[in-house]
Each structure stands twice: as C-alpha cells, then as structure tokens.
Design goal:
The complex is a heterodimer.
Chain A: H1 2-15, E1 19-26, E2 34-42, E3 45-50, E4 61-63, E5 68-71, E6 73-78, H2 116-121, E7 125-130, E8 137-145, H3 151-154, E9 155-165, H4 185-215, H5 224-227, H6 230-233, E10 238-242, H7 246-259, E11 263-266, H8 275-280, E12 285-287, H9 303-314, E13 318-320, H10 331-339, H11 345-351, H12 354-359, E14 377-380, E15 391-396, E16 399-401, H13 406-415
Parallel strand pairs in A: 1-4, 1-5, 6-7, 9-10, 10-11, 11-12, 12-13
Antiparallel strand pairs in A: 1-2, 2-3, 5-14, 7-8, 8-9, 14-15, 15-16
Helix pairs in contact in A: 10-11
Chain B: H1 2-16, E1 24-32, E2 40-48, E3 51-56, E4 66-69, E5 74-77, E6 79-84, H2 141-144, H3 150-157, E7 160-165, E8 172-180, H4 186-189, E9 190-199, H5 213-239, H6 251-258, E10 262-266, H7 269-282, E11 286-290, H8 298-304, E12 308-311, H9 329-337, H10 341-348, E13 352-355, H11 362-374, H12 379-385, H13 388-393, E14 411-414, E15 425-430, E16 433-435
Parallel strand pairs in B: 1-4, 1-5, 6-7, 9-10, 10-11, 11-12, 12-13
Antiparallel strand pairs in B: 1-2, 2-3, 5-14, 7-8, 8-9, 14-15, 15-16
Helix pairs in contact in B: 5-6, 8-10
Chain lengths: 418, 446
C-alpha cells in the first residue's frame, strides 16, 4: 500500500511536465502561425506540434479552444530578484563598491522568493537576464528562469555575460540653458580619461594573468577577479557594455576593437551615427524602456519609440531589456510601443523571444516553439504584447507555473471587502 | 576776459595737477545729455555744493566757478548699477561656502538669476533666529560699505557714480542702499536707505531648509504673513501697553517691514509670470531681477506694472562646456535674444534698468549695453536704463539719475559718445566732487 502510493506520486510527478494542448493557435515565432493545432510536450520539452501532431497515449490533454500559445518572453536585462524594495537598503543586492568586480555573480544573489518574480511572470515573462551593477565592471549576469525554489533551479546559464559600464564624458545638457547642473568639461574629461586608463590597465592585468596561468609554473596563484575575466579575453563570453549616447557607444565600439573582446551594447538610447558601425560589426543591442523622455532637449519627442524601428531598418539585431525590478513586468509593452512607431510586429515579438535567445546563445533551448526546445510556454487569450490580453497558463520546462501574484492576491482580498 | 583765461589756466592746471576742489564748476559748450529730456548741444551745466545748480543751452557762468571748456565733450548723468555688491565685504574664502557653479566675478558675486546659491558671506550671515533660517533681512548694505574698496574707484573711472548695493546671502539677504561711489565714510556715501529687500530663492541648497523652489516660496510667504501679524501686534501694544504682553522683538521681521520693496529673481518667462503673481499676493511692491527671457515677457510685465532689472551679462557660450555638445534650441535662442529684451521692454513701456553683475571690465559693460542697442534699444533709452530708469525704480529719482536743477551733481564727461569703442571718460563728478581717471593705460576695472 505504501509502495503503491509512492509509485503513484512519482507517476504524477513525471506526468507533470508532459501534456498536450489541443485546438490551440500556435505562434512558433520562428515559423508561421498555425491555427487549430496540437502541441505535444514530453518530459519538459516540445516533442511535436502542428495541425496533425499525434497525441501520445495516456497523455494529459488540455483543450485550448480559442487560445494562443507563444514561447515564454525573455527579458534581456533586469535586476529582478536582486532588490525587493529599492528604498530598503537591506533588500537590495545589486551594486557592489569598487570599480572592478568581475568575480561577483548575480546568480547567487537572486532571491527565488521575491514578490517581483510572480508579478513579472504574470505578463508572460519566463526568463530574465539578471545583471549586477556598480563601478566599471559590476560582475557576471545570469540567465534565470522565473521559477524555482532555489537559484540553482532557476538558472538557465549561471554566468552568461559580464556587466560593464563604459566611462563616459556625459555632461548634463537638458537644463544647460540656465546653468543648472553644470560641470566644467575639462574636469569631466580628465575623470573620463582617468577611468578609461584604469579600465585599460585592468584588462592588461587580466591578460598578464592569462599568460601566467598558461605558462603554469609554481608561483601561480588563483586570483578570482582576474580568473573571472578569462572567458571574456578568450572570446567565450560577451561583455554587456552599457552605453546610452552616441559618444559612449562609439567609445564602447572602440574599446571592444582595441581589447578584441565581444560585446553586447546595453541601454542604447541615442546612438546617432554609430548605428552604421553597430550594424556592420554585427554587435547586438539590448534596448531599454520606450516610454521615456529623450536624452536631449531638442531630440524628437518620440525618439525612444522610433529607435527600435530605426535599428531594425539598419540591420541591427536587438532585444528588449527592462533594466528594472518592479517594471520588468512591462517588457511586452515596451516592445509593443515600438510597433506603433515603425517596428514590424513580428520583429517586436522576436525581440522578446528568439532574438534574445540568439543574442545570449541559448536558442537551442528557449526563445521559440520548435521541436526539442524546452517547453517555456504561455497560453493566452490574445497577443501577449497587447495590454488587454491575459496569460491563462504558463509552463517553464513543461511544469505549470502559478500565475498568482501579489497583485492578484490583493485584488482578491479587496474584491471581498464588504 | 583776462580773468577767464586765468580761470581756464587754473582749471587746466588742476586737471593735470591734482589737489583740492572748490566744489564750484561750470562746464561750457558741451553736448549735454540730461536723460530726462533731449540732448542740449553747446549747453552749460553749473555744479555747486554737490548739487546741480543750473543746466541748459544758455546758462550764464556764475562768477567764481571753475570753468571747464566742454568743446567736443559730452556730459552724462552718472551711471547707476541697479543691483550691485560693489564695496561690500568680499565673500568668505571658497572653502567656507557652498560650491557655486561659476567663478565669482571681481565686481561682485554671481547673481545671474534665480537659480544659484549665493556666495555665503559668513560674517554677514549669522543664520538668523532658529525659525527664520537664511534670513538677515535687518542688514543694510549702506552700513557695510567699505569706502576704500578699489572696486569703487574702478567703477567710478568708468562713469559710474552710484550703485544700489545689497547684501546677497540668504533667502532674505538684507536691505539695499543707494550709495554714491565716493566718500571717506560709509555714511557720506549713502544717498537712500533702505531701498528694498533682496530675496534669493535657492532651489538646490544643501544647507538646510529651504532647499527647493517650493520651499523657498513657502518660506517667503510665511515671513510676510508673520510680518503682518507682528506689525498689528506692535501697533496694538504701542496704543496701550498696560496689561498687554509685549510682542517679542524680531529683527528678521523688522527688516522685512522696513523694506519699501522686494527684489525677486526671475530669469525665464515662467519665473517672471510667477513672481508677478507672487508679488501681488505679498501685497508689496516688487522689482524683478535677472530677465534673460524678458524679450518674451514684455506684455505680462507691462500689464502688471512690475519693473525689472536686466543683467547686462548676457547669456553666453559656456567656455567650460562640452565642445561636442549640441546646444539646445532654447539655449541658442536665449543667447541670441536676451539682449533684445531691453528694446522689447522699452517698446512696451515697461520700467527697467541694467545691472552689471558678472561683468569684469568697464569695456565689457559698454559692449553689453551696445548689444542691447544693436538689438533695437535707442541710445537715449540705454542711457536712461543706466541712470534715471534705475533711480525711478528705487524711488530716488528726486535726487539722482538725470541732469536737472537741484539734483545731486553726479555726472561724467567723455570725449565722445559714451557707447563708442574709443571714447574716454575725462571727468567724473560724484556729489559735486571732481575725479579724473588716469588717462587710460591698459587698466582693468578691478
């Protein structure tokens, strides 16, 4: 009796990541939409899909008539799980002190119980690139599933890229007319050059370390900081370089060329003439919030909205990131805003699914509905980029994930108020 | 005839000699610009005992006057800097005060508009009573003037004879005084005091409340409410002290009540409109200062009747700025159009005057006025804005600002149009006392 119960439980568990969706419209993202189709998930992976996909015997079948299935959305830059309430210092773990901290790993800093995780899931986001900040090199970012009891369970890739903030010479221009926030340019430039020099020296140190390590020998000791730089120097890992304005972007491009490292540009806002070079060198870009003021007083009011469309036309590969904790839930709407200002719809959807997966080199597992990929799926009653659509069900690696959030709990609580 | 020769010879000797002045002069055959009316070619002006005794085209030269041949010379009323710190104790060392965005100009502390934290003159500012922070409203600039200050001489050599000086630290910085730029003691220099309360509205102070524009405005508002109440309590007590608790003496409110008008900062049009409304609410005459965007606000100023002081340091390209920065349209527009503000105000019939804060040399002042003239202001209006216009705004036009009988003998004599590049100031009279600037070497104002 006892044994039987155990077996039953195991069976139920095993079946938990296998199911079939029937009568559903499938949006694979990498291929054309398929109405009235069947999607088969076995052992957490997409086994088959199509109008005539065979339903395995004994499979749990969910009738999804009138609903749509999409790959789960991917946020290409956030701090979800690293900070709970920004004004409560103790709940924040995003920034470390010091200029160079490549040894820090966001992965172990993510709090799996963060209330922001379910809230973000609520709008269809299943994975997020979570990065640390602070100084020039802030540490290593992780690609995390937005579900799991522990960070180990959440991690898709523990160390996927290295956060870096390129030193800039940005001087405030928005309120310059009346002398507000002014700082002599010479001072700004001196500081910029100093920091750029520091950065160069740090890379030199890392290379020297790389040579020492390769040479072997008795005197070699492990340095966690420099060790963490090796995948960057070897070209195995990309640097996630934050650069908003044209000059910073150009500096970042020059830096990448000089140090011969691979980079992904993050938080690009007004790249100006640098777009051409970004496209030519095939450097991926992570775009931030669209609902944003332009950086310059005289920039077109809609420049944050039109930028994604312009990059697309220039042939730049990009994905969206929220660069946020509490606004990570707005990821789909960020992409949607760009559609109204010149970005083709398909491209907007790709920018939060397959293009993100490709940029991070995980498109063998996530980012689209394709055979063999993980079943990171959302079942919706409409277009997930549309604010009125509801996510009805979510699976991460085939496991159903709760869509209950702090928001829904409060909603329930207060609808009961007499 | 012979006597006149002698007199001329004596005058000549004096001109290149030096000592003493009998205080009785007649300038003949000069082009006289009275500011209160049209120019008088070949006019005569008589100065005695510090006052203008006579001025006109056919004024007889009284016996006993030192006669000055004014052929080829121009006589103007002495210039007035309508908002100044000349002669006041210098700012405390940089370390002792909050960082200011721009370097202090030698002519005074930066006072471009409403936005900056004023330099902290430590020993002028004891912080005020606890509940009256940033308030030294009782200070009178006239009491603080240092007659030996070299700035005064430099300004005088450029044709300035009067400055309306104000303490400049704090929200209620203190009261202004009209001072003549000559005198052995501060008391000799004061022509009118107090002439107004200088108010700054810090928006980014780190020194404590108020540290924002809304805080500053709320604070000023409260002070005026308190002052009103204080005045009523004092009046009641004065009428019948017996049986009444005396109202506690409050020097911060005394200073506010004493001031006949309040100077408020207003750079942009939005500031100008806001401060006009604020002035109405405070029920006290208001004078605005700053005015970089006055060209846009002539109508609202006209409708309100509020006068404005324009800073002659017109906005200019930031030399410390980012060389690659693309300047905003608003920046360029303000820079281009600020000097046209004076012409716009003049056309609309708004009372205005100029002040020189931030300009270092007399030549800079002249060029700045010239820019206003090039932007449409008439030569006469420009002169008026630096003389009678300023005197009217401060209510001292009964004694200063123009060449008229009975007014204080403040004037300067040049060898050409005062705005022309090569013109030299030959003589300056302050309170009837004659000064002759050293024949211009490469002298700087400071």
């Amino acid at each position: 009796m006892k044994l039987a119960a155990f077996l039953l439980a195991t069976a139920a568990f095993a079946a938990d990541d296998s199911f079939v969706l029937r009568n559903v419209t499938i949006h694979p993202v990498t291929s054309a939409d398929i109405p009235n189709a069947t999607l088969v998930v076995t052992g957490g992976k997409i086994a088959d899909f199509g109008p005539k996909a065979a339903i395995p015997k004994g499979a749990k079948v969910i009738d999804a008539k009138g609903l749509h299935v999409y790959p789960g959305l991917i946020d290409s830059a956030s701090n979800v799980g690293m900070s709970e309430i920004s004004s409560v210092r103790e709940s924040g773990d995003v920034n470390e002190l010091g200029d160079f901290n490549p040894q820090l790993r966001a992965v172990s800093s993510v709090n799996p119980s963060s209330d922001h995780i379910p809230v973000t899931r609520g709008n269809g986001v299943t994975a997020s690139l979570i990065y640390p900040g602070g100084g020039i090199i802030g540490g290593q970012a992780a690609l995390m599933h937005l579900d799991g009891w522990t960070w180990e369970e959440m991690a898709v890739e523990r160390n996927i890229t290295m956060q870096m903030r390129i030193p800039t010479t940005t001087t405030s221009t928005f309120s310059q007319t009346f002398g507000a926030g002014r700082r002599p340019f010479a001072e700004t430039k001196r500081r910029y050059e100093e920091r750029l020099k520091l950065t160069g020296e740090f890379f030199e140190q890392a290379r020297a370390y790389q040579r020492r390590k390769a040479a072997g020998g008795g005197g070699f000791t492990v340095d966690r900081k420099l060790e963490a730089m090796l995948p960057i120097l070897e070209g195995k890992e990309q640097l996630l370089v934050f650069a908003a304005r044209e000059r910073a972007v150009k500096d970042a491009l020059a830096f990448a060329a000089k140090e011969n490292v691979k980079i992904v540009l993050a938080g690009v806002r007004e790249p100006g003439t640098a777009v051409k070079e970004i496209a030519e060198r095939k450097i991926p870009v992570i775009l931030g919030e669209t609902l944003e003021l332009p950086l310059e007083e005289d920039s077109p009011y809609d420049s944050p909205f039109t930028l994604p469309g312009e990059l697309y036309k220039a042939g730049v590969t990009f994905a969206f990131g929220t660069f946020s904790v509490q606004f990570a839930r707005n990821l789909p709407f960020q992409a949607a805003n760009a559609v109204g200002f010149g970005l083709p719809y398909e491209e907007a959807l790709k920018a939060v699914t397959i293009n993100a997966a490709r940029i991070w080199g995980v498109d063998d597992r996530i980012g689209s509905i394709d055979k063999g990929k993980w079943a990171d799926l959302i079942l919706t009653d409409g277009d997930p980029l549309e604010g009125r659509s509801q996510v009805k069900q979510m699976w991460i690696q085939g496991r159903p994930v709760s869509l209950e959030t702090r928001h829904t709990r409060l909603y329930e609580q207060y609808t009961k108020r007499p | 005839m012979k006597r006149r020769h002698l007199l001329l010879a004596a005058a000549g000797a004096f001109a290149y000699g030096q000592t003493g002045s009998p205080g009785f002069y007649a300038i003949q055959n000069a082009m006289i610009h009275p500011a209160s009316g049209p120019a008088i070619p070949n006019g005569t002006i008589v100065v005695r005992n510090g006052l203008i005794e006579a001025v006109g085209p056919s004024v007889p030269v009284p016996a006993g006057a030192w006669t000055i041949d004014g052929k080829g010379l121009h006589v103007y009323p002495g210039l007035i800097d309508a908002l100044s710190t000349w002669g006041l104790p210098a700012a405390a060392p940089a370390a002792a005060r909050p960082a200011t965005p721009a370097a202090d100009a030698p002519t005074g502390r930066r006072r471009g508009g409403g936005d900056e934290t004023p330099a902290n003159v430590q020993f002028l500012d004891d912080g005020g009573p606890e509940d009256r922070p940033s308030n030294t409203s009782w200070l009178k600039a006239g009491d603080l003037v240092q007659p030996a200050d070299a700035t005064l001489t430099a300004a005088r050599n450029a044709g300035f004879t009067t400055a309306i000086v104000f303490p400049s630290t704090g929200v209620f910085a203190g009261q202004g005084s009209a001072v003549n730029l000559s005198g052995g003691r501060a008391g000799d220099m004061v022509v009118g005091s107090p002439v107004g309360q200088y108010v700054t509205l810090p928006t980014r102070s780190t020194a404590g409340f108020p540290a924002s524009l809304m805080g500053s405005i709320a604070y000023v508002r409260q002070i005026y409410i308190d002052a009103e109440q204080y005045k009523a309590a004092k009046a009641m007590y004065a009428q019948n002290a017996r049986g009444l608790q005396r109202p506690a003496y409050d020097r911060a409110l005394e200073g506010v009540l004493e001031s006949p008008r309040i100077l408020l900062p207003a750079t942009r049009k939005v500031d100008i409109d806001r401060m006009i409304r604020f002035g109405k609410e405070l029920k006290i005459p208001v004078v605005l200062y700053g005015g970089a965007e006055a060209w846009r606000a002539a109508d609202s100023l006209k409708a309100s009747g509020v006068p404005i002081l324009l800073n002659l340091k017109w906005p200019e390209h930031d030399r410390d700025g980012d060389p690659d920065a693309v300047e905003s349209l608003r920046t360029l527009e303000t820079r281009e159009l600020a000097p046209s503000g004076a012409a716009a105000l003049s056309k609309a019939g708004v009372r205005f005057a100029f002040y020189t804060t931030g300009l270092e040399r007399p030549a800079d002042v002249r060029r700045a006025v010239k820019r206003a003239v090039d932007a449409g202001l008439s030569n006469e209006e420009a002169l008026r804005a630096m003389t009678l216009g300023a005197a009217e705004i401060y209510g001292v036009d009964d004694r200063l600002g123009s060449l008229e009988n009975g007014k204080i003998a403040n004037l300067f004599v040049t060898d050409g149009d005062w705005l022309a590049e090569r013109t030299n100031v030959k003589m300056v009279f302050v309170d009837g006392k004659k000064f002759e600037p050293a024949p211009a070497p490469a002298g700087r104002a400071e």
